[in-house]
Design goal:
Helix content is 41%, strand content 15%. The chain is of the alpha/beta class. Strand 23, helix 27 and strand 24 form a beta-alpha-beta unit.
């Protein structure tokens, strides 16, 4: 029986179409799902590089591109494009089967053939070869096929390889890119193997069996069961996009079981959150199947999906609702941020806790330092209290005097530690008299409450943006779920650490070594934006939650677009005028208002931006606002975390504003903390810029931020 398949690229193009055109597309391809092909005309182009590619008329302007293997039993919708572009695609591309992985591949055959003479001319004048030390056998082992190999042997620079990215199959480019980054053949294979839908490649690969190759490529192709499923996919194309997991993501999300805590890491846009959402959906579905009953003390949903901020939790909740339509399965997952969970546990035990105001807390530390005659700044004292005393949950002066102060650069004598302890005792006593607590204090309290009663609240806990959680919050998460298979699933990226929390999971009883996986392909931003933003992070080494060095080696994007635009202005007013002009240009180009984000490091700059846009009759709302497609989103760089936009403008990236002076400890006070604060500020800027999918605009007045050195 004939089958219909849909390629990921088809949904991407379909989602961009006007509603009237989408209706025509649905009508045109509906016959595929209904298996009623009478009257349909699949046009075969003359001089096509692949005679299995056809086009189908949508209307007078649009055509669909269809892959029809020789058997005639399977049709795959590849993309929908304007008439001329559809014909150009159909005549220039070729589909094949990767001989190492068995997955479906596509290449721009015409572009490769046109480029080959230029590469040959360069090769005649340059003896250097990019892959001279790699044998043909090793390249074939990595999936480089016989048609591509001669071209590969002509490459002499990284720039030549990058020029081929849009023409080569993804798996073959990934292999070559990994080798060009300095990886060994074995390391490159580890990168390429992420494209495998299973743990091991197939024993036998038929180079002519495109259908089997499609079945092995769920990250790019999905089979449709019939008309109802097709209508559901076309009605919610962006939601359906999430079903197209990269094979490396799918193997993690749908692994039958992890023997204990597991972690997935990766750079911005690599799909960590999507993987975590699918893991939640998978575990929720498994929880409904016959098996051992949950223990009586596990009241409520068996799965917690959590993160740091409430805005991020709300975003996760909305995304999970798109992914899981079955209300019974959805009800097994509770989505809330860690501090709300902390608040609820303490409230049930002793009533509603009062949260200490941050400004008032800072004043308490300033007063404690002044009255004790201490030379330490209030910020240093508060950080010492939060990161060491509360971070290690220390309850006696002796425990503090003898503890390790990992991550704190300024050494303290025992006499100085004693002074810090006395100041901390004073502040905590004042908070207690005022019946107030910080969330970190409450996290420790909630953990003790659970441990005292032996209560666990969930069977599984899934954590997104784990790099931003304080040790006290991690202790709580360890306490709410009993140790065992699939107890904790963690998504994290230490390169996006924007809060002053540094954690060793192993020290908290969460051992992820051996169960940690890394994602390297960015599906959010273009390669041009990625290449511009990664240098913002600097060259300082980064340590992950597992205590191991974390690297962005192999981090790349298969998408291409315009380079980021950097704008210097002579005054703040000119910068705001330039911002309104850029936003107006995006709107005139057809980008919807809600798909545009504006960010700045300081909140007063975001207010200025909103006022300027309002004066230009451009509506704005805060970043976390839902609905309202008629307004541009704006907020601080921190508020951009977890969001994504088609276009992003980041303003005020000037010296004196970025890094924010108030966020950086003076080097004279603590050199290590100073360098950590600078790195954290780099991460904040990186996070804001990598929210952009297609367009990134960065502006400043006067002198640029030191972080822009070498990237503008």
């Amino acid at each position: 029986m004939a089958r219909l398949a849909i390629a990921k690229g088809f949904l991407a193009e379909y989602a961009k179409l006007e509603k009237s055109v989408q209706s025509s597309v649905e009508a045109a391809i509906g016959k595929f799902a209904e298996h009623t092909y009478a009257g349909m005309h699949l046009e075969k182009l003359h001089h096509s590089r692949d005679d299995r590619i056809r086009t189908i008329r949508v209307d007078s302007f649009w055509r669909g591109v269809v892959l029809a293997p020789e058997t005639g039993e399977t049709y795959c919708l590849i993309t929908v494009l304007p008439h001329d572009k559809a014909n150009a695609y159909a005549s220039s591309h070729r589909f094949s089967v990767n001989q190492a992985l068995g997955v479906l591949e596509v290449r721009d055959e015409e572009a490769l053939q046109q480029l080959q003479p230029s590469l040959q001319a360069v090769a005649q004048t340059d003896d250097k070869r990019l892959f001279a030390d790699i044998s043909d056998a090793d390249l074939r082992q990595l999936g480089i096929d016989a048609q591509i190999l001669p071209l590969v042997r002509l490459l002499s620079t990284d720039a030549h390889l990058e020029a081929l990215q849009t023409m080569l199959p993804d798996a073959q480019y990934a292999a070559l890119y990994s080798l060009a980054c300095g990886m060994t053949v074995q390391e490159a294979w580890a990168e390429v193997a992420q494209l495998l839908p299973a743990e091991t490649p197939p024993d036998v690969v038929d180079p002519d069996d495109l259908v089997s190759a499609m079945e092995r490529t769920p990250g790019q192709v999905a089979f449709v069961s019939g008309p109802e499923e097709l209508q559901q996919i076309l009605a919610h194309p962006f939601a359906a996009w999430r079903t197209f997991l990269h094979p490396s993501q799918r193997r993690i999300a749908y692994k039958a079981a992890f023997s204990g805590p597991a972690q997935v890491t990766g750079g911005a846009g690599t799909g960590k959150t999507v993987t975590a959402l699918h893991r939640a959906a998978f575990l929720a579905e498994q929880a409904g199947k016959p098996g051992p009953e949950a223990s009586p003390d596990q009241a409520g949903p068996p799965i917690l999906l959590t993160t740091y901020t409430r805005n991020l939790a709300d975003a996760l909740d909305a995304q999970l609702a798109l992914l899981v339509e079955d209300t019974a399965i959805r009800s097994r997952v509770e989505v809330l941020n860690v501090d709300r969970l902390v608040h609820r546990i303490v409230k049930e035990a002793r009533g509603t806790p009062a949260i200490a105001d941050e400004r008032a807390l800072h004043q308490r530390w300033a007063q404690a330092a002044a009255e004790a005659g201490l030379t330490f700044t209030p910020v240093f004292l508060q950080h010492e209290w939060e990161q060491v005393i509360l971070g290690q949950d220390l309850h006696t002066e002796q425990a503090y005097l003898t503890c390790l102060r990992a991550g704190r650069g300024k050494p303290l004598s025992k006499a100085q530690r004693s002074q810090v302890w006395q100041a901390a005792e004073r502040v905590t006593a004042e908070l207690k008299r005022a019946h107030q607590s910080t969330y970190i204090q409450l996290a420790n309290e909630a953990t003790h409450l659970l441990r005292e009663t032996g209560t666990t609240l969930y069977r599984h806990v899934i954590v997104d943006e784990g790099q931003d959680l304080h040790p006290a919050r991690w202790r709580l998460l360890r306490a709410v779920v009993p140790p065992g298979p699939d107890d904790l699933f963690i998504a994290a990226d230490p390169h996006q650490r924007i809060y002053d929390n540094r954690v060793s999971l192993a020290s908290l009883g969460i051992q992820v070594r051996g169960r940690s996986r890394r994602l390297t392909v960015n599906y959010r931003t273009t390669q041009e934006i990625l290449a511009w933003t990664v240098p913002l992070l600097g060259a300082a080494p980064v340590t992950g939650l597992d205590g191991e060095a974390d690297s962005l080696m192999g981090y790349r994007s298969p998408m291409h677009g315009r380079r980021p635009e950097v704008r210097k202005t002579a005054s703040h007013e000119q910068e705001l005028t330039a911002l309104t002009e850029r936003i107006r240009g995006w709107l005139d180009a057809g980008i919807e208002p809600h798909a545009i984000g504006v960010a700045a490091r300081a909140s007063h700059l975001t207010r200025d931006a909103r006022d300027a846009l309002k004066s230009a009759d451009i509506s704005t709302v805060s970043l976390g606002t839902r609905g309202s497609k008629s307004a541009v989103r704006s907020g601080t760089m921190h508020g951009m975390k977890g969001l994504e936009f088609q276009a992003v403008a980041v303003i005020g990236v000037a010296q004196g504003l970025v890094p924010a002076p108030s966020a950086v400890t003076p080097a004279s006070e603590d050199a290590l903390t100073h360098s950590q604060d600078l790195q954290q500020e780099r991460c904040v800027l990186f996070v804001a810029c990598t929210r952009a999918r297609d367009h990134l605009y960065v502006s400043y007045t006067g002198e640029p931020s030191e972080f822009l050195a070498g990237v503008t």
